[in-house]
Amino acid sequence: MKLHYRRLVYGIFVLLFLIIAPSLALYTAGYRFNLSNRSIERTGAIAISTEPSEVGVLINQEKVEQLTPFRLNNILPGEYDIEINTPEYYGWHKKLKVVSNLTTFLKDLRLIKKQLPTLSSSGNINLLAVPPNSQNLIFSTYDQLSEEKILLKEI
């Protein structure tokens, strides 16, 4: 190979190194190029956890590969349309704002079942509450003569 071609190949490799190395260093430090602003910006993150877990999520009408709970890193700052749909539960939809160098949390989002259980009890219900584990129901009933308390009833 002639000296002229070796210098050309050497120059191309040096040029590629000078372009790729800083780009890779900026990306690993949490920076990305924003095409709309034509500038380099610090990225943010979104962390989502739901009850029930392992539910699919759409971000800007694109399906996320992971099921909840999950965390998406290296997201450009801006507003994102978050949508959670599952057949057994009512859907949830909201716009979340991602800020650079911060994590936007959507923590312990509880989805509501489409078909709620029915409670049949003799007497009038005096008190009705759902404890934090949401697997049981607390209620008390009363009649004319006495008050009966049922602490936990599985729903």
Mean pLDDT: 82
Helix and strand composition category: alpha+beta
What integer value in Å does the Rg equal? 28 Å
How many strands? 12
User: How do the strands line up in the largest sheet?
Assistant: 5-4-7-8
Main pleated-sheet profile:
4 strands, antiparallel
* β-strand amount: over 45%
The backbone outline, from C-alpha atoms, is rod-shaped
Helix content: 10-25%
- Low-confidence spans: pLDDT under 50, at least 5 residues? 149-155
What report would you give on this structure?
With 155 residues, this protein is an alpha+beta fold. Helix content is 17%, strand content 48%. The chain has one helix and twelve strands, in the order αββββββββββββ. The strands form four sheets. It has a four-stranded antiparallel sheet, with no helix packed on it. The protein has a three-stranded mixed sheet with strand order 6-3-9, with no helix packed on it. The termini are far apart.
Tell me briefly what this model is.
Helices cover 17% and strands 48% of the residues. It has one helix at 3-28, and strands at residues 31-34, 39-42, 44-51, 57-59, 62-63, 70-75, 78-86, 89-98, 103-110, 124-129, 136-142, 147-154. The radius of gyration is 28 Å and the shape is rod-shaped.
Which descriptors would you attach to this protein?
alpha+beta, four-stranded antiparallel sheet, 17% helix, 1 helix, disordered C terminus, rod-shaped, 155 residues, three-stranded mixed sheet
